[in-house]
Design goal:
Layout: H1 9-18, H2 23-41, H3 49-69, E1 80-84, H4 111-118, E2 122-127, E3 139-140, E4 144-145, H5 161-168, E5 174-179, H6 185-191, E6 194-197, E7 213-218, H7 221-231, E8 260-264, H8 275-290, E9 294-298, H9 304-323, H10 327-330, H11 335-342, H12 349-370, E10 375-379, H13 408-413, E11 417-424, E12 430-437, H14 442-455
Parallel strand pairs: 1-2, 1-5, 8-9, 8-10
Antiparallel strand pairs: 3-4, 5-7, 6-7, 6-11, 10-12, 11-12
Helix pairs in contact: 7-14, 9-11, 9-12
Length: 466
């Protein structure tokens, strides 16, 4: 590949060290990609671009000077990255993808952003998201529609919509999103990416919330692991964070021989899994089996009531935000999201408490059902990518959170889970599988994904669109 924007972190770093490419030149290559792709995919927050371009130019020049002196800050020095709009950057207004939201202007960078800057990464811009992050698509009242680089008629998934699109279009190798029920992993399956949802508390946040995490969307497991070396560093603002740990994020020598793998094909609730998606997942199970893992089918543990209760819990949370708005601002919220949030208007305090207790029951059930296994392999979503204009996989109807039966249990349990491409449908749509691990075993999950990348065969390897 002659375009440095498409290079992985290791290749860029080697070129910086050898002085055959500078961070300034790498940024120029990414900007050329942005200029070509952005009118089609709409992955970046448009209002942010002028300031982001100036900041990135300064950061790239500083990195270039460090590499010239032979004093890089680490493996991310000079690497182009993007961050999702809801990850604070000091002085940059945040509206969480919602045209009706009053902008919040943070006075300090979010922890993930601080860690990236400390590692020398060059932040080229903020990526788009749907209203409040409560859709699994790239439909936003503020940004319009973010589209897939594979096929602009298709969704990116969401809510880390712009992050996923930017990763496929090669706006650099690392793109940081957030996830509370599938918002990193869903773009992963619908865009063919490695999309890692870390263990809860592994990557510090400045506004922690039940199940919420930040993590990388990349083209390779190796790049996701390198991103985690920076993102997983401690920050005193996150009172829910895991204790600081010196983890070896190296993926060399990854193997699955002798490991126990649970193959989870039926979520037990929500949308039924499309037969073609199930077939790709079953084939992935055979890849693990051929690699020497013991693979057993896992029975479903999620119930329709558990899935309905977490939907209600989130509706009430969003309705509280909606109710605090003026009537004029409320009218600017995406109609689908507004209607969905209003579904929580009549919930009583007892209803909300019962829903919360149900979330805790989901957490307990997930840990118990998976404890005997080193990894769980499953679909990420029950269906493949859908039209870009649809807010949800079924269109405009209100089906709650029927599409996250495979992803949300691991969000609530706090277990690490990563999407990796496992195949394609006959029409070319990507299908990822989710590899979930035991609590806190982020390194193990990424090592299993790296092993699967090498073992899955050329037919499952994405040939990135140009």
């Amino acid at each position: 590949m002659t375009d440095p924007a498409r290079w992985d972190v290791a290749t860029l770093t080697a070129a910086f060290r050898a002085h055959t490419l500078s961070p300034v030149e790498a940024l120029a290559a990414v900007r050329a990609r942005i200029d070509r792709w952005e009118p089609v995919i709409n992955a970046l927050v448009a209002a942010d671009r002028p300031a982001a371009e100036s900041d990135a130019a300064t950061a790239a020049a500083q990195s270039e000077a460090r590499w010239r002196r032979g004093e890089p800050l680490g493996p991310l020095d000079g690497i182009p990255v993007t961050v999702k709009e809801n990850l604070a950057r000091a002085g940059v207004p945040m509206r969480a993808g919602c045209a009706g939201a009053t902008p919040v202007v943070p006075t300090r960078d979010a922890p993930a952003v601080e860690r990236l800057r400390e590692a020398g990464a060059v932040i080229v811009g903020a990526t788009t998201m749907p209203d409040w992050g409560m859709l699994s698509s790239g439909v936003s009242s503020l940004h319009g529609i973010t589209r897939s680089p594979w096929d602009p008629a298709l969704t990116t998934g969401g809510s880390s919509a712009g992050a996923g699109a930017a990763a496929v279009a090669a706006y650099g190798p690392i793109h940081v999103g957030t996830d509370i029920g599938g918002s990193i992993r869903l773009p992963g399956t619908w865009l063919g990416l490695v999309a890692h949802k870390p263990s809860f508390g592994r990557v510090p946040l400045d506004a922690p919330y039940l199940g919420r995490v930040a993590g990388p969307l990349t083209r390779t497991a190796a790049d996701a692991a390198i991103a985690m070396t920076a993102l997983a560093r401690p920050d005193e603002r996150d009172w829910s964070a895991l204790p600081p740990a010196s983890l070896d994020w190296s993926l060399d020598g990854a193997a699955v021989r002798g490991l126990r793998v649970g193959l989870w094909l039926d979520a037990g609730a929500g949308m039924p899994c499309h037969l073609a998606v199930r077939a790709v997942t079953e084939a992935a199970g055979r890849v693990f089996e051929n690699g020497g893992a013991q693979v057993d089918v896992v029975q479903p543990w999620l119930t329709p009531q558990l899935l309905s209760d977490i939907d209600l819990f989130w509706r009430v949370r969003s309705f509280a935000d909606l109710e605090a708005m003026t009537a004029e601002n409320r009218s600017l919220v995406l109609p689908f999201v507004r209607r969905w949030a209003e579904g929580g208007a009549r919930a009583s305090g007892v209803d909300v408490l019962r829903a919360y207790q149900s979330v805790m029951a989901m957490r307990a059930a997930t840990v118990a059902a998976t404890a005997a296994y080193d990894f769980i392999v499953s679909p990420v979503a029950p269906v493949a990518a859908f039209p870009a204009e649809w807010p949800m996989p079924w269109g405009e109807a209100d089906e709650g959170m029927a599409h996250i039966g495979f992803t949300v249990p691991f969000s609530m349990s706090g277990q690490p889970a990563c999407s990796v491409n496992a195949g394609f449908l006959p029409d070319g749509r990507t299908v990822g599988v989710q590899v979930a691990g035991r609590r806190f075993d982020d390194v193990g999950v990424l090592r299993a994904v790296a092993w699967f990348e090498a073992a899955r065969g050329a037919g499952a390897e994405p040939g990135w669109p140009e």
